[in-house]
């Protein structure tokens, strides 16, 4: 479960995130939509404890991320926009390295099964990741989440730059993770994918959560109109 | 986490070919430097062998001629060539005062290309105190010697810099740092482990290559085990210093190109600028007197003494009654007058020679005071100390030669004043010079100093980052 209460981050006079409050329960996906600089990545960075909140709290499974940084990190997996791995290591070795850093130890067969579960073709398991596409690298990231038995998945624009097939595969993986009771927070620009995969959508502008919508209650067209209204208001103001 | 880091750090290093490039670079540089150092030592040994052979040849002539005299024959030769005259022996058959290179002398040329390693102090003339310099190739003076000390002090830090400058920033630029930061690990511990692994790899590689090159060039390093251990420890301390510098630059700057520039700047300052500046300040503040001027002044004192020869001889016999025969048969020739005035000469020339020594000592004191500013100075001192080629070693050698020359004269002068002849028995009991390394081993001190400086820098400059376990500022 991911919870933020009045989460705020300011840099001098500039407010990156303002009084942000939301909860993502197990088996839910919250997609944060917004233009560049809306505060989506700053929110994820605070949840990862890469940034200290100016005020408010951020919690993973009830644990404050600033006070229990290592405990909360053992519960989550983070997939950035461009997931980078060690290019001279194979997919198995990369997965082995990061799972061991998380305190888990698996044999090669287990690691292979995690990679397969994440959708990575078998012949790629023992190849060095230097020639992997972005989609393939993200599958290794998902395999890490599976291996870690992560309770929380933080995704920062994971589908940007992916071809439609890879994007579709990735969304299917997220649906599986959701079915496995993982709480997922995804920052994205992609309204179509957000509508397709999420349980809730938050639209952010200038660090403020302008709209919090239950996805089932809104059509794609309505979502687009709402989003553009908020963005246009920003441009007018 | 450590075993995982160790395994994957080695995998990453071997697959990136970096380790191989580093290994080959160190091996080639060390082998070439050892070859050069060994060549210099071999030249010294060769020179010593030649002069020893010459001495043996001269001695065999001496012994044969003495046998002829002791058989009661009187060979036809001028008085000043007769070896049964003590002054002939003292002047024409001087002993050799050799400073033999040590097993590890190949490490650092030090002052060995500036000073001689053998002298033959005669009963006449003590100007040898001023005549210790070797003719040196000016090109060599300009560029220095490519010995192991040069490679360790100047080039090894550059290799370490290329190996460590981006140890953290590369992760940031590659994009893996955020993924690492999202794992339940203290990133500072992870970084320190990574640095420690690389530190052990470089130190071990350097040690192994030093040992292998020694084996390759037949250096019997085991003959000086203590110095060998000292060498390994001082290398480890020097490598540690550069790893600490890399750690501080990585956590404070965390940008590969800026890190590289900063570390090269540190190298330039500590290895090149500071030692050269201290050297220049030393020479400017405490210039050594001109040797030519000193020789001229000594000549003037000699001339002055010659004019007061009778007065000097009377004073001398009053202070050395054992040498006075108190009869009219005692005749005083050139040698009698020379030795009688020697003490007066010594007293008058002492301030001149002292001036030279005092200035030199002041220069050395200045360098000793400021040596802690630059690890390169500490390192050079330590390596010269291990090699036995430091300024202190050569000054002490000069001192030992002077002490021996006094023994040599004191052995022969009483024979002169007592009109005694030099015999075969006297030949067998002649004093011999044995060089003794009396310079205390500074390597341990320098090792401790360098380690403490590194740890101090690590804890003082890195404290802010060490305390911040989450190391948030590194990720974004």
Q: What does this protein structure show overall?
A:
The complex is a heterodimer of chains A (237) and B (476). With 237 residues, chain A is of the alpha/beta class. Chain A has one domain: P-loop containing nucleotide triphosphate hydrolases (Rossmann fold). Chain A has 8 helices and 10 strands. In chain A, the strands form 2 sheets. A 6-stranded mixed beta sheet of chain A has the order 6-7-8-3-9-10, sandwiched between helices. In chain A, strand 1 (2-11) and strand 2 (14-24) form a beta hairpin. The longest helix of chain A has 17 residues, at 220-236. The model of chain A has no long low-confidence stretch (mean pLDDT 92). By secondary structure, chain B is mainly alpha-helical. Chain B has a domain at 2-32 and 148-265 and 444-474. Chain B has helices spanning 2-15, 18-70, 86-92, 138-143, 148-164, 169-174, 176-181, 187-216, 225-252, 256-285, 291-307, 309-319, 334-370, 375-387, 391-417, 424-428, 443-461, 463-467; strands at 97-98, 118-119. Chain B has a two-stranded antiparallel ribbon. The mean pLDDT of chain B is 86. At the A-B interface, helix 2, strand 6 and helix 3 of A face helix 1 and helix 7 of B.
What is the total tally of β strands of chain B? 2
Number of helices of chain A: 8
Give the oligomeric state: heterodimer
The low-pLDDT segments of chain A are none
- Biggest sheet architecture of chain B: 2 strands, antiparallel
Taking Cα atoms only, what radius of gyration of chain B do you get, to the nearest Å? 30 Å
Alpha-beta content class of chain B: mainly alpha
- Structural class of the helix and strand makeup of chain A? alpha/beta
Tally of structural domains of chain A:
1
Major sheet characteristics of chain A:
6 strands, mixed
Within the largest sheet of chain A, what's the order of strands? 6-7-8-3-9-10
Strand order of the largest sheet of chain B: 1-2
Q: How large a portion of the residues of chain A is in β-strands, by DSSP E?
A: 25-35%
Q: Which regions of chain B have little confidence, pLDDT < 50, spanning 5+ residues?
A: none
Protein name (chain B): ABC transporter permease
Keywords (chain B): Membrane, Transmembrane, Transmembrane helix
Transmembrane segments (chain B): 18-35, 148-168, 199-222, 228-248, 260-278, 443-462
Pfam families (chain B): DUF3526
């Amino acid at each position: 479960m991911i919870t933020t209460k009045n989460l705020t981050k300011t840099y001098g006079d500039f407010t990156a995130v303002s009084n942000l409050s939301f909860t993502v329960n197990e088996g839910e996906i919250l997609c944060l939509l917004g233009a560049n600089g809306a505060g989506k990545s700053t929110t994820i960075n605070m949840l990862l404890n890469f940034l200290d909140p100016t005020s408010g709290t951020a919690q993973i499974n009830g644990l404050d991320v600033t006070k229990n940084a290592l405990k909360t990190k053992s519960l989550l997996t983070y997939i950035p926009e461009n997931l980078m791995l060690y290019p001279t290591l194979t997919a198995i070795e990369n997965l082995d390295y990061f799972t061991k850093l998380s305190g888990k130890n698996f044999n090669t067969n287990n690691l292979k099964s995690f990679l397969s579960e994440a959708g990575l073709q078998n012949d790629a398991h023992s190849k060095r990741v230097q020639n992997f596409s972005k989609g393939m690298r993200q599958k290794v990231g998902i395999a890490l989440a599976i291996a870690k038995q992560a309770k929380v998945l933080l995704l920062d624009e994971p589908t940007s730059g992916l071809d439609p097939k890879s994007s579709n595969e990735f969304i299917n993986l997220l649906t599986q993770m959701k079915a496995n009771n993982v709480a997922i927070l995804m920052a994205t620009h992609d309204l179509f994918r957000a509508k397709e995969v999420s349980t809730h959508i938050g639209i952010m502008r200038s660090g403020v959560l302008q709209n919090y919508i239950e996805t089932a209650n809104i059509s794609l067209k309505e979502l687009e109109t709402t989003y553009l209204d908020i963005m246009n208001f920003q441009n007018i103001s | 986490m450590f075993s995982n880091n160790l395994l994957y750090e080695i995998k990453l290093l071997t697959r990136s070919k970096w380790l191989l490039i580093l290994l080959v670079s160190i091996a080639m540089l060390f082998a070439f430097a050892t070859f050069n150092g060994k060549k210099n030592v071999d030249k010294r040994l060769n020179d010593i062998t030649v002069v020893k052979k010459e001495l043996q040849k001269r001695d065999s002539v001496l012994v044969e001629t003495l046998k002829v005299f002791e058989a009661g024959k009187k060979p036809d030769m001028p008085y000043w060539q007769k070896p049964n005259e003590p002054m002939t022996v003292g002047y024409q058959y001087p002993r050799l005062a050799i400073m033999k290179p040590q097993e590890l002398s190949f490490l650092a040329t030090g002052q060995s290309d500036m000073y001689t390693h053998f002298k033959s102090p005669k009963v006449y003339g003590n100007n040898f105190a001023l005549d210790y310099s070797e003719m040196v190739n000016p090109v060599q003076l300009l560029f220095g010697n490519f010995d192991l000390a040069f490679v360790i002090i100047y080039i090894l830090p550059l290799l370490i810099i290329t190996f460590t400058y981006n140890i953290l920033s590369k992760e940031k630029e590659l994009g893996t740092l955020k993924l690492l930061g999202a794992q339940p690990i203290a990133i500072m511990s992870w970084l320190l482990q990574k640095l420690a692994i690389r530190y052990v790899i470089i130190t071990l590689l350097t040690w192994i290559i030093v040992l292998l090159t020694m084996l390759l060039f037949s250096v019997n390093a085991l003959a000086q085990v203590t110095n060998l251990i000292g060498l390994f420890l001082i290398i480890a301390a020097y490598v540690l210093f550069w790893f600490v510098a890399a750690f501080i630059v990585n956590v404070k700057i965390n940008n590969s190109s800026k890190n590289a520039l900063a570390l090269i700047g540190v190298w330039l300052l500590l290895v090149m600028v500071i030692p050269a500046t201290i050297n220049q300040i030393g020479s400017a503040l405490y210039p050594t007197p001109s040797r030519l001027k000193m020789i001229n002044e000594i000549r003037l004192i000699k001339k002055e003494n010659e004019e007061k020869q009778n007065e000097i001889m009377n004073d001398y016999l009053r202070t050395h009654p054992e040498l006075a025969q108190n009869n009219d048969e005692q005749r005083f020739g050139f040698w009698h007058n020379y030795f009688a005035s020697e003490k007066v000469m010594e007293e008058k020339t002492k301030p001149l020679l002292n001036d030279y020594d005092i200035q030199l000592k002041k220069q050395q004191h200045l360098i000793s005071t400021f040596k802690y500013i630059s690890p390169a100075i500490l390192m050079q001192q330590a390596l010269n100390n291990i090699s036995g080629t430091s300024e202190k070693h050569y000054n002490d050698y000069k001192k030992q030669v002077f002490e021996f020359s006094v023994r040599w004269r004191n052995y022969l002068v009483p024979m002169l004043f007592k009109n005694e002849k030099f015999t075969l028995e006297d030949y067998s009991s002649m004093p011999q010079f044995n060089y003794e390394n009396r310079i205390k081993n500074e390597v341990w001190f320098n090792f401790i100093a360098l380690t403490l400086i590194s740890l101090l820098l690590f804890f003082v400059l890195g404290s802010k980052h060490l305390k911040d376990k989450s190391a948030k500022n590194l990720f974004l």
